[in-house]
């Protein structure tokens, strides 16, 4: 028997399945049983089914598109996270629509609005450096669109997130500097608005406290957006009365800039100043001396965030709290720190 203008609904009724299950089977989505896929494909071929993509998506109220907003697609951390996200969503039959905010809050708001109007089935977000107001994401949540934050989060929003244990990573980095006889340990801050900067600073301070060392406010170097301004602060720190013998930096790029300042001041690394970064970016291995750092599993973060988002979509149930998936970090020791046996 052959029918004209066969639809997903026709196939679903014949096989006593839901239209969404038939759609996933036709798209070879991994969550559908192989036996069901074979049954659907056999009937679709027998009846001469030709997919009507717009009608199908309207029927099942899904576009099979997911939105992603990141501060910078060229940044190694985010490119790895995107790769992990894409691996998971592609296997599940979804397409990824990527928007870069370029760390511009207005662009971030516009991207969120555009993706919402495009009826994406879900949204993945890593915040800008200076996002202070979250109404554009509150609107996404109010419209019942699942959202998951990655790395950079807002605890005031009732939405899940995937993060690394920034506190523990910073604690371990600072503790290692203390173990290698560093007494004056500075922290080079990240942007104040970011949750990652806050937790890394808290880990640094807690490590000092637990080892009986006071937090010296002169060794807390505030973030500056411009590299030239950061360099001025680094030189002032190295020329000042509280010159550090150990430094923990918010990320590897800031650590690299500080190492350049140390060299320009005629100091030796790690003999005069030990330095540890965060994230284990490629710059950590390319620079001289090679940078000790805290490894951040960007690829796995992307995969976990995508899986968390798809779970909400497939189960048609939002996670309306700040539940976080927390992934571990580990300390990677290279040439900018002294080995324990030397001390």
From TrEMBL:
Pfam families: LacI (PF00356), Peripla_BP_1 (PF00532)
Keyword terms of this UniProt record: DNA-binding, Transcription, Transcription regulation
Keyword field contains Repeat: no
PROSITE patterns tied to this protein: HTH_LACI_2
Molecular-function annotations in GO: DNA-binding transcription factor activity; transcription cis-regulatory region binding
Domain HTH lacI-type residues, every copy: 6-60
Matching PANTHER family: HTH-TYPE TRANSCRIPTIONAL REGULATOR GALS, LACI-RELATED TRANSCRIPTIONAL REPRESSOR
Protein name, entry field: LacI family DNA-binding transcriptional regulator
Organism: Rapidithrix thailandica
């Amino acid at each position: 028997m052959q029918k004209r203008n066969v639809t997903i609904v026709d196939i679903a009724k014949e096989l006593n399945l839901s239209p969404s299950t038939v759609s996933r089977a036709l798209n070879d989505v991994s969550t559908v049983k192989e036996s069901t896929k074979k049954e659907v494909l056999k009937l679709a071929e027998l009846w001469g089914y030709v997919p009507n993509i717009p009608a199908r998506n309207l029927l099942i109220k899904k576009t099979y598109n997911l939105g992603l907003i990141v501060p910078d697609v060229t940044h190694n951390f985010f490119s790895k996270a995107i790769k992990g996200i894409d691996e998971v969503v592609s296997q599940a039959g979804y397409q990824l629509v990527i928007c870069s905010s370029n760390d511009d809050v207005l662009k971030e708001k516009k991207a969120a609005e555009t993706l919402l109007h495009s009826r994406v089935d879900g949204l993945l977000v890593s915040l800008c450096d200076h996002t202070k107001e979250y109404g554009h994401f509150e609107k996404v949540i109010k419209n019942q669109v699942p959202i998951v934050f990655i790395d950079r989060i807002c605890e005031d929003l009732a939405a899940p997130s995937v993060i690394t244990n920034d506190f523990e990573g910073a604690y371990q980095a600072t503790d290692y500097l203390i173990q290698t006889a560093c007494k004056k340990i500075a922290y080079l801050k990240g942007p104040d608005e970011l949750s990652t900067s806050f937790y890394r600073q808290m880990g640094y301070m807690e490590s000092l406290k637990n080892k009986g060392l006071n937090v010296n406010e002169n060794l807390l170097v505030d973030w500056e957006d411009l590299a030239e301004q950061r360099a001025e602060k680094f030189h002032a720190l190295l020329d000042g009365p509280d010159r550090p013998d150990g430094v923990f930096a918010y990320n590897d790029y800031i650590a690299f800039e500080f190492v350049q300042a140390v060299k320009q001041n005629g100091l030796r690394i790690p003999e005069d100043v030990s330095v540890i970064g965060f994230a284990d970016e490629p710059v950590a291995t390319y620079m001289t001396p090679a940078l000790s750092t805290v490894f951040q599993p960007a690829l796995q973060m992307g995969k976990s965030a995508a899986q968390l988002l798809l779970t909400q979509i497939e189960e048609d149930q939002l996670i309306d709290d700040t539940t976080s998936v927390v992934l571990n970090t580990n300390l990677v020791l290279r040439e900018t720190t002294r080995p324990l046996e030397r001390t």
